[in-house]
Amino acid sequence: MTYALGELKTAADTMRVLRGQVEERLGPISDEALAKRLDISAGALRSYAMGRTMIKPAVLRALAELAGVQVSRVYAEMGWLPRHEVSALRQSDLPEQLRAATTAVARLSESLDGLVSQDTGRAALLAAGAVLGDERAATRFEVRLRALRSGARCPAPTTLVAEFTPDDNARPLTADTLTDRALAVGLQPVSETPRDTDGSDTTNSRHRLFQAELEVVTAEALSRAGDCSWQGEPGTTLWQPVCRRWPTHLLVQHVLTGQPFADRLPWLSNDGLPVVVIGADYSIGPTAALLARALGWRFVPVSSATAFDSGRLVRSQSLAQATRRRQGWSAAARRAGALAEPAAPWPVVMLVRPYVFGDQDAHDTATRHLLRDVRARIVYARPSPVHLDWWARRRRLTARGTQPAEAWKADILGALTRVEEVLAERSAALGPDHDLRLRLAPPSPSPDAADPLLPDALTDSHFDAAALCLRWLDRVANTGRPSLLRELRPSALRDHLPRTDASGGTVTRW
């Protein structure tokens, strides 16, 4: 039997969504492991996922059951079962906000333009679902979801936000009530808040109590949401232009760097080495996720909670403050192994923040030795002074009591210098092409630190740097084979590759 392209695409899209739901329940899972659970070959799984062949009903049933989804609904979505034969969700059982949020989530997902929505910006969606799924909180907060975009040549969604606005008639819960609930989900007790002289709540105290309630309600959901942050406290201003009310309760997550994702039909290099990208949102952090998606590799943004169990990525509790910044990097480096050690191919792109390698304590030397010896290819970019100045001023607008801009820049410059010293050692030992060192040109015009949107020039440079990485990998890890640029997986980078700038206008090698 032959199938139209539209039918094959529907099947592939359905598989992608179901796989995301499987990973929501079980954690990241490789093609081989998923194929084994479905009792099919990894080759057949990839053929279904790429839309080359039609998935068999028995396989789709097994995948739906693994995802915890009603099989009849999946069959109806595929057109294999009349929709009127599937019992509809009783809309009268849903609060009005939840119905509105369902529509908002659908529209938000459509706005991602090729970025797989179940793998990106998950924090906003999970938090919205947690609040609107809580019988009490759903009546106390209005929820608004929004995707922020940037990029001139390579436009893309960069940040997803969820704004939670207390209802005008809602009163804050007491600190005692919130403490009981906080302790039940593993959070710290909620302290009493100051009052005005007449005994009424201050703006700050109301904000803190509503914020504590939201953190309690979303705690379990956000435990699997990756890196995100609460913004909108009194005295800050950065996110005010994108909010309905200020101060507010705003959950923010970078679309690309905030959430790890599993490999999808990974391209296999000649040497099997993972890639370590040293960068942040103000430099080439998003480049790591763009590269991973285009290669079909796993993406691991290394944090204090990063850990591996028998080679599988898991989430751990942070250790003592003195070792917190080192913990995730140490686990990732040891999983990759040392250059002198044989190891199986590991198609992973890891993102490590530069501050990890700065001068901090007695662990500095050991941390940098792990970087010197790690069995991986390293990609690093030195941001311009304009990049650092913009980010330092932006940080000051997001939280009260943030480190002064000049002190932060001094710390980061020290960390960048230490990374460059290690890379010089590696270049001398391994050759100048083993790792990739880049330099970012100052963005033009100079970015406005008070604008919550990322500068167009910065987002374009993320794509430009990713394109440089692809051409470098094609040369050093794809010898004797067809061009890597013809093997890219469906991704934003593949779509925007013809519009990237290879002239050195935004990023160059050094």
* Helix content percent band: 40-55%
Structural shape: globular
Number of helices: 16
Could you give the count of β-strands?
12
Q: List segments where confidence is low: pLDDT < 50 over at least 5 consecutive residues.
A: 86-95, 109-120
For the terminal residues, how far apart are their CA atoms? 55 Å
Gyration radius from CA atoms, angstroms: 24 Å
**Strand line-up across the major sheet:** 6-9-5-10-11-12
Largest sheet: 6 strands, mixed
Class by alpha and beta content: alpha/beta
How confident is the prediction overall: mean pLDDT? Answer: 85
Q: β content, as a range?
A: 5-15%
**What is the ordering of alpha helices and beta strands?**
HHHHHHHEEHHEEEHEEEHEHEHHEHHE
Give a structural overview:
The chain is of the alpha/beta class and 510 residues long. 41% of the residues lie in helices and 13% in strands. The protein is built from 16 helices and twelve strands. The strands form three sheets. The protein has a six-stranded mixed beta sheet with strand order 6-9-5-10-11-12, with helices on one face. A four-stranded antiparallel beta sheet has the order 1-2-4-3. Strand 1 (141-150) and strand 2 form a beta hairpin. Helix 2 (31-38) crosses helix 3. The protein is globular and about 70 Å long. The model is unreliable at 86-95 and 109-120 (pLDDT under 50).
